[in-house]
Amino acid sequence: MGDEALLVDLDEGVSPAAFGAAIQAAGWASVVEVVPAAATVLVRTAPGADLPALTRLVTEHAAHVQEHGAATEEELLDVPVIYDGEDLAEVAELTGLSVGDVVAVHTGQVWTVAFCGFAPGFGYLRGEDDRLHVPRRSTPRTRVPAGAVALAGEFTGVYPRPSPGGWQLLGRTDLPVWDLARQPPALLRPGVRVRFVDVLQTS
Amino acid sequence: MTGRTPALEVLTPGPLSTVQDLGRPGWAALGVGRSGAADRGALRLANRLVGNPEDAAAVETTLGGLGVLASVDLVVAVTGAAPPLRVGGRPRNTHAAVLVPAGERVELGTPATGLRSYLAVRGGLQVEPVLGSRSADLLSGLGPSPLRPGDRLPVGPPPAAPIPVVDVAAATAPTGDDVVVRAVAGPRADWFAATALGVLTTTRWRASGDSDRVGVRLEGGRLDRTRTDELPSEGMVPGALQVPPSGEPVLLLADAPSTGGYPVVAVLLAADVDRAAQLRPGQGLRIRLTEVS
Questions:
Q1: What are phi and psi for residue B34, nearest 5 degrees?
Q2: Would you call A3 and B292 a contact, using CB atoms and an 8 Å cutoff?
Q3: How many Cα atoms are found within 13 Å in the side-chain-facing hemisphere of B61?
Q4: Inter-chain CB proximity A2 and B258 less than 8 Å
Q5: Cα(B159)–Cα(A113) distance, rounded to whole angstroms?
Q6: pLDDT (0 to 100) of residue A144
Q7: Partner residue facing B29 (CB), from A7, A40, A116
Q8: Most-buried pick from A118, B31, B153, B157 (CB within 10 A)?
Q9: DSSP labels, B48-76
Q10: Which three-class secondary structure state does DSSP give residue B109?
Q11: Helical spans, DSSP H, in chain A
Q12: CA B109 → CA B12, B66, B115, distances in Å?
């Protein structure tokens, strides 16, 4: 990708978050930034890096990670949610589930942050099955509040701050997923596993 | 001793002025783009001219119009697009270190060519850093807000390095001619019709008025996609030529998002992104393909 980056396409079944972590851990001097995404990892280099040599290293590493697996994040984060989102009924209709089942399916599986994008601290979380796969809204909202818990495509996510957005809103959390006073500022980092908890159900 | 703390007070920000350094690399995995000066070479030069480390924070101003007041005697340099420069009402050279006596104004007019000018001050701007950088990222909202009249920008202590002995740096300010840049095809050139790379390299693209620090919209041609499925989000870099469904490419700049969902047909060589960041609305751009050596 240009002369200061490599875009690595990963085979299905290889987690970009885990692969990105492995590249980061390798500590190659020419690598300045590693950006996991949905099915790729972007490796940004310092000026003048030997991209063909780095490509060979990365390819060898990919084979290794594929063979031995990469270390997985142990962290399991509970995200408390009030399920009162404006799109609950629409999601129920799109999925053929009842509103209660939408919530039960959302809370009943472990989600893993695949990557971040769109805004600082916005994690794209993948679940364990496809029952909640829904399209984006045809017309995005001009303002989605911070803490909104939402669905789009195969992902769920939490809006870190108010912004425009096209995802289907399920509910809201008061957990600050992005806080510059915290180190690291993002809670939903690639590889972190998440369980959503229906606070009204459990209290 | 006047007892005043060194600072620049913003009198007029012009159309858009922001504080920029070389950005905040290392946070893209959390969804934070690099940001930083759109013309990194011009920022580095401005800093060198006043003896600062190259990554010190300075003001990036778009189409001139910036006016600031020095609270104490300061040394500044203006680089990038070369505006008429006045200090205390008197004309001064850009691309050179200039003394600004306490209480005097620094005024940047509108540059005849180019888009972005940099005003560095010896000691650097000491606004509060965010994630290790003082850059204003206008896409993600990190860092200081765009400058407004009355803003006070603290200036740090003079660095150990002296002011270099050059009268005027031998740097070329951007011209109004067509900008020619080199690019490497891919990573998603295979998402486009076989003719797309030909269109990319033979079209005289024009920078749209609908351009900002995130990207320059290019007009004048269409790159047709053959794959119409949705591209899963993937990492982006400044210099990437991202192609939305309209077929007109967007040349990503400093405030590019860390990931994006439109295919990238080609990526500018990193050394050529600075010149692209100086494209004025309506100015021509030619793209030549090259290989990575």
A1: -75, -40
A2: yes
A3: 30
A4: no
A5: 43
A6: 95
A7: A116
A8: B31
A9: HHTT--TT--EEEEESS-EEEEESS-EEE
A10: coil
A11: 16-26, 51-68, 88-95, 99-107, 199-202
A12: 11, 7, 12
d(CA A114, CA A157): 11
- Residue B235: closest C-alpha in chain A: A42
Write down the ipTM of this complex.
Answer: 0.92
**A–B: how many Cβ contacts below 8 A?**
116
Whether the per-residue pLDDT at B59 is higher than 60: the answer is yes
In one-letter notation, the amino acid at residue B166 is V
Residues of B in contact with A33 (CB under 8 A): 25-26, 28-29, 34
pTM of the model: 0.94
Q: What average pLDDT does chain A have?
A: 92
In what order do the strands lie in the sheet containing B66-70?
Answer: B90-92, B85-87, B105-108, B66-70, B7-13, B152-154
**A2/B130 CB distance under 8 A:** no
Q: Are B279 and B212 in contact (CB under 8 A)?
A: no
Contact B269, A3 (CB under 8 A): yes
Q: Are B96 and B167 in contact (CB under 8 A)?
A: yes
Q: Name the β-bridge partners of B241.
A: B251, B266
CA-CA distance, B229 to B242, in Å (whole number)?
Answer: 15
pLDDT tens, residue by residue, B235-245:
999 999 999 98
> Both ends of chain A: CA-CA distance in Å?
50
Contact B270 A41 (CB under 8 A): no
Taking an 8 Å cut-off on Cβ atoms, the answer to whether A42 and B235 are in contact is: yes
pLDDT in tens, B256-282: 999 999 999 999 999 999 999 999 999
